[in-house]
Request: fold
Amino acid sequence: MSDDAVHLSHADLVALLERIFVKNGVSEHNARILAENCAGCERDGSLSHGVFRMPGYVSSLNSGWVDGKAVAEVEDVGPAFVRVDAKGGFTQPAFFAARPLLIEKVKANGVAVLAIRRSHHFSALWPDVEPFAEEGFVALSVVNSMACVVPHGGKKAVFGTNPVAFASPRAGSAPFVFDQASSAIAHGDVQIAARAGHELRPGMGVDRDGQPTNDPKEILDGGALLPFGGHKGNSIALMVEILSAALTGGYFSGEFDWSGHKGAQTPYTGQFFVVIDPARGGNDVFAERVAGICDLVLEAGQERLPGDRRHLTRAKAQRDGIPLSAESHAKLVSLAADR
Amino acid sequence: MSDDAVHLSHADLVALLERIFVKNGVSEHNARILAENCAGCERDGSLSHGVFRMPGYVSSLNSGWVDGKAVAEVEDVGPAFVRVDAKGGFTQPAFFAARPLLIEKVKANGVAVLAIRRSHHFSALWPDVEPFAEEGFVALSVVNSMACVVPHGGKKAVFGTNPVAFASPRAGSAPFVFDQASSAIAHGDVQIAARAGHELRPGMGVDRDGQPTNDPKEILDGGALLPFGGHKGNSIALMVEILSAALTGGYFSGEFDWSGHKGAQTPYTGQFFVVIDPARGGNDVFAERVAGICDLVLEAGQERLPGDRRHLTRAKAQRDGIPLSAESHAKLVSLAADR
Reply:
């Protein structure tokens, strides 16, 4: 971070982002949730889902594509099954509307699922799952997005980046958490590379003719990403479509029509969660066992576990404030100002 | 298949395998289940888990490592949570002992989980999940195995091949099913390549010094496999350990001690299932939607979906019988003969 960096407390960054959301038609209730989410990503160094996303939020709201004031409808459809109709709003307010009922069902039954539809998810997935692990639960979540990934061996984009996130309690340290796109690279990282003028490593994507390319601009200009890990990552991407869209009643990544909403950037799809109470597994030392296998992986020579760098970045930000470049900060202040 | 191939009906192959299991100390009840499973793999062309495995079953039983007569104990530990203690026997009899209760819970609650521990899984995972999809459910299962996969960037094997299997109903055709190791290649396929003297593609494994190798014999002789898809496949392998061992109360892949059982080949770990009733998702056309996204993937240029070739092989075997080489057949007959 350069010398001209601005450092904000988490509370101050949340307040600034909240003003931007409210100014652009988001209800105060929803704005608080979205601002906390976006500031949390920036705080943890999860930059492709941090304040970098704010112009996209704003232009999507202003296009009329997403309803910032949506009030989600939570449906209790089974002892261990919750559905939510996000009614064209962002996913996070719909998720938080359903979360207490979901937790209640997990505690009562040992496992429960949450199926969200007609929702716009424009953030990382780890903020959704990590708090479950902090409360002692194991959580798995998937979300589909917008068609930008060609199937293995295919030419036409069908899948979204379709991340899978998993969180588990781990004794003695922050939860074990991963949040990984089923594409070879996250779409936000391609945008950041394009903006920075960096080449990508081979195997990340194809150009508009379906030919391999390392140029992020060619990928963004009518090209597409590849799944990670060949046919295996491809199968995971397809599973994510089935769970997030077919099961929830939402749209597939290639299905929604935003052509009438210039400036729209948010995928209008669905999200799926499975949350498990490991105490029912009968293993009293579950969190200790998770810490044990994580330690074995590090002892075997793996450099770090997913999430670990993010937790270190968070600790630094909690001590020193969240660093923003002067340019990013000025942009946010301008978005928050009266027009 | 050469001209000297023998063709057996499914029933005849099951009966032959059943005799081998019973002869080697498996109860009649358990033998039937294991024989059906192994014959099903052979029938579907899933050869690395077909009759190729019979000598391994036999030597594991004879070593005293696995209890072929084990009677699993099913524990009803929550409205949507079933546990099973396989008591040192094979996983499949434990799974079938718990399956009716699991299905009952899925129907009653919308989702349920099954956690199996102290179990030996020596087969493919698709036979466990596919029947759920045939009954209208979505199923996800994971199983850990024996340490033969180094973590991403690591030198020492920690993970098993740790497959993930998923099955979903699909309108108008057989279920969509995948069953994929979180290693770059299945261990059985390395054994087959070593036996055939074939080289592997690059990126499959390392030798005993942790250096990349394409020689299956070097991988088997003190070397190890690599996870698929770099750090992402690695995270999936670690998730499989957490769900299959930490959550169930079973052993991690590198933890069990079979040193006192010469000839033992079966991993003594755990298995985990999540089974979902998609009807609770409120999408009446769920199976049609799954067929729709599968069709889109094929239209985009993907050659085939996982499971499709297996279903074609099955159809052929149901028509013409299950083909076995004369050598394989003779070996089975010899294993089944009185000694």
Summary: Residues 49 and 123 of chain B are 5 Å apart (CA to CA). Chain B is about 40% helix and 20% strand.
